[in-house]
Amino acid sequence: MSLPPDYHMHTPLCRHAVGEPVEYARRAVELGLTEIGFSDHSPMRRDDFDNWRMLDGQLDEYVAKVRIAQKEFPQLAIRLALEVDYLPGHEEWIRSLATRHPWDYFIGSVHYVSDSWDIDNPAKLSEWKKRDAFEVWSAYFERLTLAAESKLFEIIGHADLPKKFGIRPAQDCTPLYEKFLTAAAKSGCAIELNTAGLRKDCKEIYPRRQILEIEFQKGVPITFGSDAHAPGEVGMNFAEAISLARSVGYSKTCRFHRRQRESVQF
Q: Which of 21, 67, 128, 169 lies most in the core, judged by the most C-beta atoms within 10 Å?
């Protein structure tokens, strides 16, 4: 039984990752993966929006780097994708990105609960002290629900990202999860099991088991992603993610090609 595809990997163009796509591909082959996908942080409408993504003028360079990896490792299915930030009002920009290359999928992620606060940014950790945790989680899931409803994405990324630093609200967040997952089920987008959470303060896969259980009940499909920012992180902790998925009831994951979905056993 083959490992599921690792659909969440970055490149140095995002300015906080190391290793070229060929190095990630080489590592994937060593691990026995048969399919991977590069989904680096997409450009924003303004290049000065933040400092952790590729610039608009680098999009073609990014695609070229992935194409080189595809040629060097023909035995490995390598998908071309983007991790795209969802912000209300940016929908047309996302649609324009979709027309620029033959993408295999888009991962829709929410990092910002306002235009100025990316909640997972260590440099802005102090912002959490100024706000009520439940209000932050509520704002986050409101945007994540909008992202799912938008039908702009094949996959929703790291669905409970606010837990990254271990800050969790005392209140019950189940209604937030339910609303988001109902939207995901209705729109048909998948949700990733992102193992990067195990490497963060929260020490837990994104999303938590409770969310995954509701996902399964609602028939929401899943993908797997390491969120690798270095070749050594490719496929990292996939055994734990597979075990979690199976314990909830999942036996299939998604593959994407030219934004078309196929379900496969894992």
A: 21
